[in-house]
Specification:
heterodimer; A: 101 residues; alpha+beta; 5-stranded mixed sheet; 2 helices; 5 strands; elongated; B: 341 residues; 10-stranded mixed sheet; 9 helices; 25% helix; 34% strand; globular
Chain lengths: 101, 341
Protein backbone atom coordinates (compact mmCIF):
# COMPACT_ATOMS: atom_id res chain seq x y z
CA UNK A 1 0.00 0.00 0.00
CA UNK A 2 1.27 3.46 -0.86
CA UNK A 3 2.80 5.62 1.86
CA UNK A 4 1.19 8.63 0.21
CA UNK A 5 -2.23 9.86 1.12
CA UNK A 6 -3.41 10.42 -2.46
CA UNK A 7 -2.47 10.66 -6.13
CA UNK A 8 1.07 9.31 -6.18
CA UNK A 9 2.90 9.43 -9.53
CA UNK A 10 4.78 6.25 -10.33
CA UNK A 11 8.12 5.94 -12.11
CA UNK A 12 9.52 9.26 -13.17
CA UNK A 13 12.85 9.74 -14.93
CA UNK A 14 14.79 12.90 -14.12
CA UNK A 15 18.09 13.90 -15.70
CA UNK A 16 20.56 16.76 -15.76
CA UNK A 17 21.11 18.89 -18.89
CA UNK A 18 23.86 16.66 -20.22
CA UNK A 19 21.63 13.60 -19.94
CA UNK A 20 24.58 11.75 -18.42
CA UNK A 21 23.07 11.64 -14.94
CA UNK A 22 19.60 10.37 -14.39
CA UNK A 23 17.49 8.99 -11.60
CA UNK A 24 14.39 6.84 -11.77
CA UNK A 25 11.98 7.63 -8.99
CA UNK A 26 9.44 4.96 -8.26
CA UNK A 27 6.90 7.14 -6.57
CA UNK A 28 6.32 10.85 -6.17
CA UNK A 29 3.84 12.61 -3.92
CA UNK A 30 1.17 13.99 -6.22
CA UNK A 31 0.29 16.68 -3.70
CA UNK A 32 3.78 18.23 -3.76
CA UNK A 33 4.53 21.25 -5.90
CA UNK A 34 6.99 21.07 -8.77
CA UNK A 35 9.24 23.48 -6.82
CA UNK A 36 9.34 21.09 -3.87
CA UNK A 37 10.05 18.16 -6.17
CA UNK A 38 12.90 19.99 -7.93
CA UNK A 39 14.42 20.99 -4.61
CA UNK A 40 14.56 17.36 -3.53
CA UNK A 41 15.89 16.16 -6.89
CA UNK A 42 18.91 18.48 -6.75
CA UNK A 43 20.39 16.30 -4.02
CA UNK A 44 19.53 13.10 -5.87
CA UNK A 45 21.38 14.32 -8.97
CA UNK A 46 24.24 15.84 -6.94
CA UNK A 47 23.57 19.24 -8.48
CA UNK A 48 24.91 22.41 -6.90
CA UNK A 49 22.47 24.77 -5.25
CA UNK A 50 24.44 28.03 -5.11
CA UNK A 51 26.36 30.13 -7.60
CA UNK A 52 29.86 31.55 -7.12
CA UNK A 53 28.46 34.41 -5.02
CA UNK A 54 26.47 32.09 -2.77
CA UNK A 55 23.14 32.95 -4.37
CA UNK A 56 20.72 30.11 -5.11
CA UNK A 57 20.86 28.80 -8.67
CA UNK A 58 17.46 28.70 -10.33
CA UNK A 59 16.62 25.35 -11.90
CA UNK A 60 13.71 24.85 -14.25
CA UNK A 61 12.09 21.50 -14.87
CA UNK A 62 11.39 20.74 -18.51
CA UNK A 63 8.69 18.19 -19.15
CA UNK A 64 9.74 16.30 -22.28
CA UNK A 65 6.25 14.99 -23.05
CA UNK A 66 4.84 18.47 -23.47
CA UNK A 67 8.04 20.27 -24.45
CA UNK A 68 7.54 22.96 -21.82
CA UNK A 69 8.99 24.20 -18.58
CA UNK A 70 6.87 23.52 -15.55
CA UNK A 71 6.00 26.27 -13.11
CA UNK A 72 7.28 25.84 -9.59
CA UNK A 73 3.80 26.27 -8.16
CA UNK A 74 2.20 23.55 -10.30
CA UNK A 75 0.97 20.51 -8.44
CA UNK A 76 2.88 17.35 -9.35
CA UNK A 77 -0.33 15.35 -9.59
CA UNK A 78 -1.74 17.79 -12.15
CA UNK A 79 1.38 18.21 -14.27
CA UNK A 80 3.01 14.79 -14.37
CA UNK A 81 2.05 11.35 -15.53
CA UNK A 82 3.58 7.97 -14.89
CA UNK A 83 6.58 7.46 -17.16
CA UNK A 84 7.26 11.16 -17.65
CA UNK A 85 10.77 12.46 -18.21
CA UNK A 86 12.01 15.68 -16.64
CA UNK A 87 15.23 17.57 -17.31
CA UNK A 88 16.53 19.94 -14.65
CA UNK A 89 18.06 22.99 -16.33
CA UNK A 90 20.00 25.67 -14.44
CA UNK A 91 20.03 29.36 -15.25
CA UNK A 92 23.70 30.01 -14.65
CA UNK A 93 26.31 32.58 -15.64
CA UNK A 94 29.84 32.34 -16.90
CA UNK A 95 32.00 35.37 -17.11
CA UNK A 96 35.10 37.39 -16.54
CA UNK A 97 36.99 37.90 -13.31
CA UNK A 98 34.75 39.16 -10.51
CA UNK A 99 36.87 42.21 -9.83
CA UNK A 100 36.18 43.38 -13.35
CA UNK A 101 32.44 43.50 -12.78
CA UNK B 1 23.73 17.16 -0.61
CA UNK B 2 24.36 13.78 0.93
CA UNK B 3 27.94 13.84 2.13
CA UNK B 4 28.72 10.33 0.87
CA UNK B 5 30.89 9.57 3.85
CA UNK B 6 30.69 7.52 7.02
CA UNK B 7 32.85 10.17 8.66
CA UNK B 8 32.11 13.71 9.69
CA UNK B 9 34.94 16.05 8.79
CA UNK B 10 36.17 19.25 10.32
CA UNK B 11 39.17 21.52 10.58
CA UNK B 12 41.25 22.10 13.72
CA UNK B 13 42.65 25.63 13.64
CA UNK B 14 45.71 26.13 15.85
CA UNK B 15 48.14 28.96 16.45
CA UNK B 16 51.76 28.52 15.51
CA UNK B 17 52.59 27.71 19.16
CA UNK B 18 50.12 24.79 18.96
CA UNK B 19 47.40 26.36 21.10
CA UNK B 20 43.91 25.63 19.80
CA UNK B 21 41.80 28.32 18.16
CA UNK B 22 38.69 26.41 17.19
CA UNK B 23 37.43 23.23 15.58
CA UNK B 24 34.99 23.90 12.76
CA UNK B 25 32.74 21.47 10.88
CA UNK B 26 33.60 21.02 7.21
CA UNK B 27 31.25 19.63 4.57
CA UNK B 28 33.45 19.01 1.54
CA UNK B 29 31.98 18.79 -1.93
CA UNK B 30 32.91 15.15 -2.56
CA UNK B 31 31.30 14.92 -5.98
CA UNK B 32 34.32 16.01 -8.07
CA UNK B 33 36.45 13.47 -6.20
CA UNK B 34 33.81 10.79 -6.75
CA UNK B 35 33.85 11.62 -10.45
CA UNK B 36 37.62 11.18 -10.56
CA UNK B 37 37.17 7.80 -8.90
CA UNK B 38 34.46 6.79 -11.40
CA UNK B 39 36.75 7.72 -14.28
CA UNK B 40 39.51 5.56 -12.81
CA UNK B 41 37.12 2.62 -12.69
CA UNK B 42 35.87 3.26 -16.23
CA UNK B 43 39.45 3.40 -17.47
CA UNK B 44 39.88 -0.15 -16.23
CA UNK B 45 37.26 -1.28 -18.69
CA UNK B 46 34.29 -1.57 -16.31
CA UNK B 47 30.93 -1.02 -18.02
CA UNK B 48 30.48 2.78 -17.96
CA UNK B 49 26.85 2.50 -16.88
CA UNK B 50 28.20 0.83 -13.75
CA UNK B 51 31.42 2.81 -13.31
CA UNK B 52 29.81 6.25 -13.61
CA UNK B 53 27.02 5.36 -11.19
CA UNK B 54 29.32 4.23 -8.37
CA UNK B 55 28.99 5.88 -4.99
CA UNK B 56 32.40 5.33 -3.37
CA UNK B 57 33.08 5.51 0.34
CA UNK B 58 35.35 8.21 1.72
CA UNK B 59 37.75 7.14 4.46
CA UNK B 60 40.30 9.26 6.31
CA UNK B 61 43.97 8.31 6.40
CA UNK B 62 45.07 9.16 9.90
CA UNK B 63 48.11 11.32 10.47
CA UNK B 64 51.15 9.19 11.29
CA UNK B 65 52.44 11.92 13.56
CA UNK B 66 49.33 12.78 15.55
CA UNK B 67 46.98 9.84 14.95
CA UNK B 68 43.17 10.08 14.93
CA UNK B 69 41.27 12.36 14.64
CA UNK B 70 43.94 14.18 12.62
CA UNK B 71 43.82 13.36 8.90
CA UNK B 72 46.68 13.43 6.41
CA UNK B 73 44.71 12.35 3.33
CA UNK B 74 41.42 10.75 2.29
CA UNK B 75 40.84 7.61 0.33
CA UNK B 76 37.89 6.86 -1.93
CA UNK B 77 37.03 3.26 -2.67
CA UNK B 78 34.10 1.08 -3.63
CA UNK B 79 31.73 -0.32 -1.02
CA UNK B 80 33.28 -3.78 -1.37
CA UNK B 81 36.77 -2.26 -0.91
CA UNK B 82 37.90 -3.59 -4.27
CA UNK B 83 40.53 -1.78 -6.33
CA UNK B 84 41.07 0.88 -7.46
CA UNK B 85 41.32 3.41 -4.66
CA UNK B 86 41.78 7.15 -5.05
CA UNK B 87 43.88 9.09 -2.55
CA UNK B 88 43.04 12.74 -2.07
CA UNK B 89 45.67 15.09 -0.71
CA UNK B 90 44.95 17.87 1.72
CA UNK B 91 45.04 20.32 -1.20
CA UNK B 92 41.54 19.13 -2.09
CA UNK B 93 40.25 21.01 0.96
CA UNK B 94 42.30 24.21 0.56
CA UNK B 95 39.43 26.34 -0.77
CA UNK B 96 36.90 25.58 1.96
CA UNK B 97 39.59 25.80 4.67
CA UNK B 98 40.53 29.27 3.46
CA UNK B 99 36.89 30.27 3.55
CA UNK B 100 36.55 28.99 7.12
CA UNK B 101 39.67 30.88 8.18
CA UNK B 102 38.17 34.10 6.76
CA UNK B 103 35.13 33.52 8.96
CA UNK B 104 37.45 33.16 11.98
CA UNK B 105 38.99 36.52 11.09
CA UNK B 106 35.54 38.05 10.84
CA UNK B 107 34.66 36.67 14.27
CA UNK B 108 37.88 38.04 15.74
CA UNK B 109 39.33 34.63 16.59
CA UNK B 110 42.15 35.11 14.08
CA UNK B 111 44.00 38.33 13.41
CA UNK B 112 44.14 39.80 9.92
CA UNK B 113 47.19 38.23 8.27
CA UNK B 114 47.90 36.03 11.32
CA UNK B 115 49.46 32.71 10.42
CA UNK B 116 47.96 29.48 11.71
CA UNK B 117 47.89 25.72 11.33
CA UNK B 118 44.77 24.11 9.84
CA UNK B 119 44.52 20.33 10.14
CA UNK B 120 41.76 18.16 8.75
CA UNK B 121 40.02 16.05 11.41
CA UNK B 122 37.38 13.31 11.17
CA UNK B 123 35.15 11.24 13.37
CA UNK B 124 32.91 8.28 12.49
CA UNK B 125 29.23 8.92 12.06
CA UNK B 126 26.28 7.06 10.64
CA UNK B 127 25.83 7.49 6.92
CA UNK B 128 22.79 9.68 6.49
CA UNK B 129 20.52 8.96 3.58
CA UNK B 130 18.61 11.94 2.26
CA UNK B 131 14.96 11.92 3.27
CA UNK B 132 13.18 10.67 0.18
CA UNK B 133 9.66 9.58 -0.56
CA UNK B 134 9.79 6.71 -3.01
CA UNK B 135 12.69 4.51 -4.03
CA UNK B 136 15.30 5.90 -6.37
CA UNK B 137 17.68 4.33 -8.85
CA UNK B 138 20.64 6.26 -10.25
CA UNK B 139 21.63 5.76 -13.85
CA UNK B 140 24.65 6.94 -15.77
CA UNK B 141 24.65 7.40 -19.53
CA UNK B 142 28.25 7.89 -20.55
CA UNK B 143 28.94 5.72 -23.57
CA UNK B 144 32.58 4.94 -24.26
CA UNK B 145 33.82 4.27 -27.78
CA UNK B 146 36.70 2.00 -28.60
CA UNK B 147 39.34 3.92 -30.57
CA UNK B 148 43.06 4.05 -31.17
CA UNK B 149 44.88 6.69 -29.14
CA UNK B 150 48.19 6.49 -31.05
CA UNK B 151 46.35 7.04 -34.35
CA UNK B 152 45.12 10.42 -33.06
CA UNK B 153 48.33 11.35 -31.27
CA UNK B 154 50.33 10.93 -34.47
CA UNK B 155 48.30 13.66 -36.17
CA UNK B 156 47.84 15.96 -33.19
CA UNK B 157 49.67 19.03 -31.98
CA UNK B 158 49.98 19.46 -28.21
CA UNK B 159 49.15 22.82 -26.64
CA UNK B 160 49.88 24.19 -23.20
CA UNK B 161 51.34 21.90 -20.60
CA UNK B 162 51.18 18.22 -21.33
CA UNK B 163 48.30 16.50 -19.63
CA UNK B 164 49.59 14.47 -16.73
CA UNK B 165 48.31 12.90 -13.54
CA UNK B 166 46.23 10.41 -15.48
CA UNK B 167 43.93 13.03 -17.01
CA UNK B 168 42.39 11.80 -20.25
CA UNK B 169 44.01 13.43 -23.27
CA UNK B 170 41.74 15.90 -25.04
CA UNK B 171 41.58 16.24 -28.82
CA UNK B 172 39.95 19.17 -30.61
CA UNK B 173 39.75 19.57 -34.40
CA UNK B 174 41.26 22.83 -35.67
CA UNK B 175 38.04 23.63 -37.54
CA UNK B 176 36.08 23.54 -34.30
CA UNK B 177 38.34 26.16 -32.74
CA UNK B 178 38.14 28.20 -35.93
CA UNK B 179 34.34 28.15 -35.76
CA UNK B 180 34.50 29.41 -32.18
CA UNK B 181 36.99 32.13 -33.14
CA UNK B 182 34.75 33.26 -35.98
CA UNK B 183 31.85 33.49 -33.59
CA UNK B 184 33.91 35.57 -31.19
CA UNK B 185 35.01 37.83 -34.04
CA UNK B 186 31.41 38.35 -35.13
CA UNK B 187 30.56 40.17 -31.88
CA UNK B 188 33.59 41.38 -29.97
CA UNK B 189 31.62 43.59 -27.58
CA UNK B 190 30.20 40.77 -25.51
CA UNK B 191 30.95 37.27 -24.29
CA UNK B 192 29.76 34.38 -26.37
CA UNK B 193 30.04 30.63 -26.09
CA UNK B 194 28.80 27.18 -26.82
CA UNK B 195 28.76 23.55 -25.82
CA UNK B 196 31.38 21.04 -26.96
CA UNK B 197 30.14 17.64 -28.00
CA UNK B 198 32.03 14.51 -28.90
CA UNK B 199 32.98 11.12 -27.57
CA UNK B 200 34.66 9.66 -24.54
CA UNK B 201 36.94 7.02 -26.04
CA UNK B 202 39.01 4.17 -24.68
CA UNK B 203 41.95 2.55 -26.34
CA UNK B 204 41.45 -1.12 -25.47
CA UNK B 205 45.07 -1.98 -26.17
CA UNK B 206 46.44 0.72 -23.88
CA UNK B 207 43.57 0.81 -21.40
CA UNK B 208 43.54 4.61 -21.61
CA UNK B 209 40.63 6.99 -21.85
CA UNK B 210 40.67 10.09 -24.02
CA UNK B 211 38.18 12.62 -25.34
CA UNK B 212 37.53 13.49 -28.96
CA UNK B 213 35.49 16.66 -29.42
CA UNK B 214 33.65 16.58 -32.73
CA UNK B 215 31.61 19.79 -32.81
CA UNK B 216 30.62 22.92 -30.98
CA UNK B 217 26.99 23.89 -30.63
CA UNK B 218 26.77 27.69 -30.32
CA UNK B 219 24.75 28.89 -27.35
CA UNK B 220 22.56 31.18 -29.41
CA UNK B 221 20.05 31.68 -26.61
CA UNK B 222 22.72 32.66 -24.08
CA UNK B 223 22.64 36.36 -23.26
CA UNK B 224 26.08 37.94 -23.13
CA UNK B 225 27.54 41.29 -22.18
CA UNK B 226 31.09 42.48 -21.64
CA UNK B 227 31.62 40.51 -18.43
CA UNK B 228 29.10 37.69 -18.34
CA UNK B 229 27.30 35.06 -20.35
CA UNK B 230 24.00 33.63 -19.11
CA UNK B 231 23.26 30.02 -19.95
CA UNK B 232 19.51 29.84 -19.47
CA UNK B 233 17.11 26.91 -19.45
CA UNK B 234 16.34 27.79 -23.08
CA UNK B 235 20.04 27.51 -23.91
CA UNK B 236 20.14 23.95 -22.63
CA UNK B 237 16.92 23.05 -24.45
CA UNK B 238 18.34 24.33 -27.75
CA UNK B 239 21.64 22.55 -27.19
CA UNK B 240 19.92 19.28 -26.42
CA UNK B 241 17.73 19.63 -29.52
CA UNK B 242 20.77 20.33 -31.71
CA UNK B 243 22.58 17.33 -30.28
CA UNK B 244 19.57 15.11 -30.91
CA UNK B 245 19.27 16.40 -34.50
CA UNK B 246 22.90 15.46 -35.15
CA UNK B 247 22.08 11.87 -34.09
CA UNK B 248 25.72 10.78 -34.02
CA UNK B 249 25.81 9.31 -30.56
CA UNK B 250 27.76 12.30 -29.22
CA UNK B 251 27.64 13.47 -25.64
CA UNK B 252 28.36 16.85 -24.07
CA UNK B 253 32.07 16.84 -23.25
CA UNK B 254 32.54 20.47 -22.25
CA UNK B 255 31.88 24.06 -23.17
CA UNK B 256 33.61 27.16 -24.41
CA UNK B 257 33.16 30.87 -23.96
CA UNK B 258 34.97 34.07 -24.77
CA UNK B 259 36.51 36.74 -22.60
CA UNK B 260 36.59 40.13 -24.36
CA UNK B 261 39.80 41.09 -22.62
CA UNK B 262 40.29 44.02 -24.98
CA UNK B 263 37.28 45.66 -23.30
CA UNK B 264 38.35 44.85 -19.75
CA UNK B 265 41.87 46.10 -20.28
CA UNK B 266 41.38 49.05 -22.62
CA UNK B 267 42.41 51.53 -19.91
CA UNK B 268 45.46 49.53 -18.81
CA UNK B 269 49.03 50.51 -19.70
CA UNK B 270 50.81 48.41 -22.32
CA UNK B 271 53.32 47.20 -19.71
CA UNK B 272 50.52 46.08 -17.39
CA UNK B 273 48.83 44.19 -20.18
CA UNK B 274 52.05 42.45 -21.05
CA UNK B 275 52.19 41.01 -17.53
CA UNK B 276 48.45 40.49 -17.11
CA UNK B 277 47.16 36.93 -16.80
CA UNK B 278 43.85 37.84 -18.47
CA UNK B 279 45.46 37.78 -21.92
CA UNK B 280 46.65 34.24 -21.34
CA UNK B 281 43.25 32.94 -20.28
CA UNK B 282 41.67 32.63 -16.86
CA UNK B 283 38.79 30.63 -15.47
CA UNK B 284 36.88 32.95 -13.15
CA UNK B 285 34.98 31.85 -10.05
CA UNK B 286 31.72 32.02 -12.01
CA UNK B 287 33.28 29.92 -14.78
CA UNK B 288 34.35 27.37 -12.19
CA UNK B 289 30.89 27.27 -10.67
CA UNK B 290 29.27 26.71 -14.03
CA UNK B 291 31.74 23.94 -14.80
CA UNK B 292 31.06 22.29 -11.44
CA UNK B 293 27.30 22.61 -11.88
CA UNK B 294 26.91 21.43 -15.47
CA UNK B 295 30.13 19.56 -16.26
CA UNK B 296 31.14 17.64 -13.13
CA UNK B 297 32.36 14.61 -15.08
CA UNK B 298 36.11 14.27 -14.68
CA UNK B 299 36.76 14.13 -18.44
CA UNK B 300 35.06 17.45 -19.29
CA UNK B 301 36.86 20.63 -20.31
CA UNK B 302 36.03 24.33 -20.48
CA UNK B 303 37.80 26.33 -23.19
CA UNK B 304 38.34 30.07 -22.77
CA UNK B 305 38.95 32.19 -25.87
CA UNK B 306 40.65 35.39 -24.76
CA UNK B 307 40.16 38.21 -27.24
CA UNK B 308 42.97 40.62 -26.42
CA UNK B 309 42.43 42.57 -29.60
CA UNK B 310 45.89 42.03 -31.04
CA UNK B 311 45.25 38.93 -33.12
CA UNK B 312 43.12 35.79 -33.09
CA UNK B 313 41.77 34.92 -29.62
CA UNK B 314 44.09 32.69 -27.61
CA UNK B 315 42.70 29.39 -26.34
CA UNK B 316 43.20 28.05 -22.81
CA UNK B 317 41.74 24.78 -21.54
CA UNK B 318 40.57 24.11 -17.99
CA UNK B 319 39.44 20.79 -16.60
CA UNK B 320 39.36 18.49 -13.61
CA UNK B 321 42.53 17.29 -11.96
CA UNK B 322 42.12 15.12 -8.88
CA UNK B 323 38.78 16.74 -8.16
CA UNK B 324 39.96 20.34 -8.58
CA UNK B 325 39.64 22.59 -11.61
CA UNK B 326 43.00 23.44 -13.15
CA UNK B 327 44.47 24.65 -16.38
CA UNK B 328 45.30 21.70 -18.57
CA UNK B 329 46.72 20.79 -21.95
CA UNK B 330 44.85 19.87 -25.11
CA UNK B 331 45.66 18.62 -28.59
CA UNK B 332 44.49 20.05 -31.90
CA UNK B 333 43.85 17.87 -34.91
CA UNK B 334 44.67 19.16 -38.40
CA UNK B 335 41.95 20.31 -40.72
CA UNK B 336 40.11 17.42 -42.30
CA UNK B 337 41.20 14.89 -39.68
CA UNK B 338 37.60 14.31 -38.68
CA UNK B 339 34.18 15.45 -39.87
CA UNK B 340 33.10 18.44 -37.77
CA UNK B 341 30.06 19.45 -39.80
Amino acid sequence: MSQFSESPIALLEVSDVTGQRAVDIEEVDGEATVGELVDRLLADLELTRDDADGRPITYRARLEREGRHLHAAERVGDALQTGDRLVLQPNIDAGGPADRR
Amino acid sequence: MPDGSTYAFGVAFERLDGSPIERVDLTPDWEPARERFRLLVAERGVDPSVAFALDPLVEPRWSRLRGAPFVSACRLRADDRSEPALDLGIGYFAGPVQQLSSELVTRGLLGEGERYFATLIARPHARVESARRGALRRRARVPIRAASLPALERRAVAHDEASDGGDPLWFVPSELLEQARERVASDRERETGGVLVGHLCRDPALGRLFVLATAQIPALAAAGDATSLSFTAETWTETRAALDRRARGEIMVGWWHSHPVHLWCRDCAVECRRLCALDRGVFSETDRRLHRTVFPRAFTVGLVLSDAGDGPPGVAAFGWRDGLIARRGYHTLPEGAIDVS
